[in-house]
Every structure is written in structure tokens, then in C-alpha cells.
Amino acid sequence: MVGHLLEVKNLEVEFTTYAGVVKAVRGVSFEVDPGEVVALVGESGCGKSVTAQSIMQLIPSPPGKITGGEIIFDGENLLEKNEHQMQKIRGNKIGMIFQDPMTYLNPVLSIATQVTENLRLHKGMSKKEAMERAVELFHLVGIPDPEIRLKQYPHQFSGGMRQRVMIAMALACEPKLIIADEPTTALDVTVQAQILELLKELKDRFQTAVILITHDLGVVAGQADRILVMYAGQIVERGTLDEVLKTPQHPYTWGLLKSVPRLDADKSRKLTPIWGQPPDLLQEFSYCPFMPRCDYAMAICAEEMPPFFNGGRARCWLNHPQAPKVEFKKEVS
Fold first, then answer.
1. Whole-model pTM?
2. Are 232 and 278 in contact (CB under 8 A)?
3. Which DSSP symbol is given to 269?
């Protein structure tokens, strides 16, 4: 039996600020298998990107610090690696597609320089070999006239094309794992669909594992094998794609699903937002952090942090055997 490619165990990350210590990730654990797509879903500020940056050891220190846990990748604990050792892993064994390609791409360097850097660094290719590989990658990700485009600069590319450049860079060394952090942010829906379909095709072709980070459950519907729903730095629900989308167990997941617009919905029906604001991560939680925003909160929710119920599906007291039965209304399932 093939083991997990990635195991994150009880990850804890905090940031020291003028207001106090922000505990951004609180005991997060999950696994990713070879060739699997795992989606991290939740509102902005819930800890998705910080979890991804922790895997890549990209947490800025100061003010950030990984204070606990393990990140086992390909049998090795990444938290025991120094910066020199991590440089051999980033872009080589683990690729990352960042949220804003215009911010990530260097505006004063040609696209060719940026795409071939990893190839020359990790694969020892000559300049000519790296350029030939870059042309192949551009064909692969659907960028036309690659010989011409490689000589250009980031500002000469559209948002969708810049995202394709990022994907080409992430794939350059054929990594075992790709972390896609909001890969379709700020793209129109047509380009979003193209980028997601491209990721799916490349995953199937290279059997690369993917961690897909998004706030939009609609994005993961045709992409993910498993979904992890995050809230306040914790995973509050997890399961297969069908389990989470068809039989969600946590009120926060219900809220995320109800806020997804549907083409077949009555035009007069308004979206149902999740009222209130995410909690202040400066505080400790001895209770359910979603309790102040939950329509189904009970007395115990304000007194004690819920464990995982239903075989580890959801961290919610509604799943306790003695709790009143409340079912998700499948109006947007």
C-alpha cells in the first residue's frame, strides 16, 4: 500500500503583533495522497494560506512562527529542514501557484528568465535546454507563440495568461505536489473554468497531488477528491467531495453552500450570507468559535469546544448522539 505523500500533524502557527499573539493555525491535521486533489475551503482569514505557506516554509519570521506540529513530506519532516535544504524542495518537489501572479512575477525580468530559473537551478539544464523545456511547458498550459511570449514581460500578459505562466513554473520540475492558492482569484468566469480544467488535465497527466485553496465551494465541485472546511484556524469539517457537498454536517459548511449562487435558482431569491464576522484570533477558544454566528447554537456550544463526531466528519455539537436532529435544507445542494 502506498503511504501518504503529505501528512500535516497538529500544525500550530502564530504571529506576534502590536495587539498580541494571533494564533492563525490551531492544531490542523490532514493528509494528501499521490495524485489526489484536496481542497482547503473557508472565508478569508481562516488559516488556509498560512497552512500552505507553512508547508513551503514561507512564513515570514518575524512576525510569524510555527510553534508546533509536524509536516511530513515524502517521509521527511519539513520542519526539521534548514533554509538551504528547503530551497532544494521548493519548486522542485513542491510547486506553488500563488494567489496574485502579478505580485509574484518580477516585473523587471523577462518571462523566460523566471520560467527557466528552477530548471537551471534544480535540473542543472543549460540555458538552451531550459528554454526548450519552457517552450514545451507553454504549449502544455495553452500559451500560444511561446517563443515570442517568453521574451516578453509580465505586464504584457493578461490575468489569465499570467496565471498560466505561474502554472507552467509550478510544473517545470514535475513536482510531486502542487499547492494552488486561490488560482482563479480576480479572473472572469470563463478564464476560471479554463484554468481549473487545465489543472485537472495536468493532474491526471502527471499524477501530481494538488492542494487547492479557495473560499468558493463552487470552484471545488468538479475538482476535489476531498474537502477540508476551515474556520478560525481549525478544520471544522472534512470528507469526500460527495459527503461535504451532499450531506454537510457543520452549520458553517451549510452557510458556505447557501451563499453559492445558482443558475437554476429563482431570480427573486436572494443569496443567504453568513451573518456576523469571523472571530478575533487573538483570543483563545474554550468554546465553539462559530457559536456567535450559528443559528443552531446550544448552551454547550458556549461552554466547550466540540470534538470531531461521525467518524471524524465534523466538529459540531449538533452531531452528538443526544443532540436535537437538524438537517441541512438542500435548496442549494
1. 0.89
2. yes
3. P
Is residue 97 within 8 A of residue 179, CB to CB? The reply is: yes
Which amino acid is present at 187? L
Instruction: Count how many domains the chain has.
Output: 1
Residue 236 contacts residue 252 (beta carbons within 8 Å): yes
pLDDT digits (tens, 9 = 90+) for 29-78: 999 999 899 999 999 889 999 999 999 999 988 899 999 999 999 999 99
Q: For 118-135, how does the pLDDT look when each residue is reduced to its tens digit (9 = 90+)? A: 899 898 999 999 999 999
130: which 3 cell numbers? Answer: 531550459
Burial class (CB within 10 angstroms; exposed 0-12, middle 13-18, buried 19+) of 200: middle
- In a domain, residue 155? The reply is no
Task: Please state, in angstroms and rounded to a whole number, the distance separating the CA atoms of residues 291 and 232.
Answer: 12
- Which CATH number is 315's domain given? 3.40.50.300
pLDDT in tens, 243-257: 999 999 999 999 998
| Strands of the 177-181 sheet, one edge to the other | 94-97, 177-181, 209-214, 37-41, 226-231, 234-240
CA distance 250 to 253: 5
- 216 within domain boundaries: yes
pLDDT of residue 67: 94
Decide if 310 is inside a domain: yes
The answer to whether the CB of 60 falls within 8 A of the CB of 54 is no
Q: Does some domain include residue 129?
A: no
Indicate whether 185 pLDDT > 50.
yes
- Reply yes or no on whether the pLDDT at 328 is more than 80: no
Percent composition of the chain: helix, strand, coil (DSSP 3-state, to 5):
35, 20, 45
Confirm if 85 and 77 have CB atoms less than 8 A apart: no
Range of the domain at 42: 1-85+211-263+275-333
* Residue 219 contacts residue 192 (beta carbons within 8 Å): yes
Characterise 22 by phi-psi region: left (phi > 0), alpha (psi -120 to 50), beta (else).
Answer: beta
